Amino acid sequence: MFCINTYRIVGFDSLYLILIMPSPVSIYVVHHLKSKVATQLASDLFDWFRLSLLTENQSNAGLPVYFRRRIVEARLQPDISFSDSDLNIVVLLVDQEMVGDIDWRTALVRFAKSARTWNKKHVGKNRVQILPIAMHEGLYRIPEVYENFNPIRSLDMPLDQMTAFLRRAVTEAAARFVRADNSDVTPPLNVFLSHAKRDGRQIAEYIRDSVRSFGQMVAWYDANDLPYGGKWKSEMMKSARTDTAAMVATVTDTYPSRQWCRREATEARTPVRLNRAISSPGIWKVQPVVGIYNLGNLWTRPMPMLEGVPRIGWDAMEPRKTTERLVDRLALEVMLGLVHRKVAVSIARKQTKRMDICYLTWVPDTWTLSKLRQIMLAGKEDVAKIRYIVYPGYGLAKTELSELDSVVQSFHRDSQLVSFEEAMSW
Given 43, 149, 229, 420, which residue has the most CB atoms within 10 angstroms? Predict the structure, then answer.
C-alpha cells in the first residue's frame, strides 16, 4: 500500500516536499483553523511524530502526519482516503471553536459515521481509529463521536501541561492500535525494567510505581512478576527479549558490572528474525530500549550493546518529569519499531526472489550489525551473499555511514547499507 508522504520544510503553513512511500500508519490531526491553542497542539504533534524534536535521530525515520483544518459543505477537505494506509489514526482536537460551529459539528458526525461504516465493511484491513480530544465539554453533546470513540480528556489544562499530556496519550494509543494488528483488542504496553539491585532499585521502583499514572503502560518488574519457585532465569530473559513491548535500562555505576544486567541488555538488543518465509536473509527486529542514566563517581565501563539506544539522565530532584519523558519516548520507540516492521515486510514482498538482501527494522549501529552477522554465521548462513542491508528512514549522514563501513563490509566487501527510501526504487 502506498500513499503520499509529506515533510514540512519550514513553518507551519509553508511548502511541502512530496514523496511516494509505503505507509502502514498515517496520522491525521484535525483542528479548527481559528483556534490558536489547537493549532499549536497540532504543530507539536507533527514535530513529535516526524521526530523533529529528537535531534539525535539519525535517519529521519518518522511517521507520516497530515493536517485537516478546512471543511466544505460540512465535510473535511481534502478527504481522508482510508484505503491509503493499513491504519489511519485521526486525532480530533475538539475545542470551543469546533463545537461552536454548526458546520464543524455536522462534519464530525458525518466523519464518525463514515469511519464506523468503513470499519464494518473492511474488517481486518485499512482500519480507521478516531481519537477525539475533549478540549471542551461540548464534545459530550456530539454522541456519535464520543459514545463510539473513547475520548482523551484534557479539559481545563494549561497549554504546556496539555501539550505533554496529549503527546503521551496519542502516542500510547497509537502504539496500542498498531500492536493490535487489525484486532479490536488493544494490548497494553508492557515495559521490562532492567536494573542493578545495589544502586538502581530505587529508580526502578519509582518508575514501576509511577509509570501507570502517566499513561496506560504496565511495568514488568522481577520482584513482582517472577513466580516464586519458578524458573526465573529463562522467564526473565524471555521477557527482556520478546515478551514485553520495550525495555528500560537503568544504567547506574553498578549496572555494567552485573552479569544479569549485561545479559538483559544483550537479550533486548540481539536481533531476532521476524519472518523467514519472505526472503532467506530475512527481516530482523530488536526490542525497543530506552536508557535512564544515573552515574556517580565510581569507576565503571561502557556497554557496547546499548550503542544507539536513546538515553536520558535521571533527575533525582524532579523524578516525575524524567518519568514522563521516559513514558513518551518508550511509546514512540514501540510505535516506530512496529511501523518499520510493516514497511520492511512491504518492501521485502516485492523482492522475494532476491537472496542478497537483509532487512532491518531499526536504525543500525555497530553492535547490532556485528551481532546480526554473528547470529547468521551461527545458523550456518552464508553472510557473504548479502549485498544490501536495508534500514528504516531516508538515509544516514555520510559520517554515520563511514562509521559503519567496517562492520558492513565484514559481511562482504561489496555489502552496503540502503535506506527504505532507496529500496523502494528497486
Answer: 420
Amino acid at residue number 73: E
SS3 377: helix
Give Cα 380 to chain centroid, integer Å: 33
The pLDDT, as a whole number, for residue 216 is 60
pTM of the predicted structure, to 2 decimals: 0.79
How many Å apart are CA 350 and CA 426, to the nearest integer? Answer: 9
CB atoms within 10 A of CB 205: 16
CA distance 93 to 30: 6
Q: Comparing 2-180 with 189-336, is the CATH topology the same?
A: yes
Q: Does the bond joining 364 to the residue before it have cis omega, within 30 degrees of 0?
A: no
How do residues 155-189 score in pLDDT, each as one tens digit? 888 888 899 888 888 888 887 787 776 555 455 67
Any idea which architecture 189-336 has in CATH? 3-Layer(aba) Sandwich (3.40)
Residue 142 DSSP label: -
Judge whether residue 321 has pLDDT over 60: yes
Q: Is the dihedral of CA 151, 157, 163, 169 positive or negative?
A: negative
Scanning the structure block, which residue is given the C-alpha cell 547490532? 368
Per DSSP, 80 falls in state P
Closest CA to 264 of 308, 220, 325, 210: 220
Is the separation of the CB atoms in 392 and 343 below 8 Å? Answer: yes
Q: If we measure between CA atoms, which residue out of 67, 136, 155, 72 comes closest to residue 110? A: 72
CATH number of the structural domain 2-180: 3.40.50
Distance CA 128, CA 132 (A): 13
Q: So where are the chain's domains? A: 2-180, 189-336, 349-423
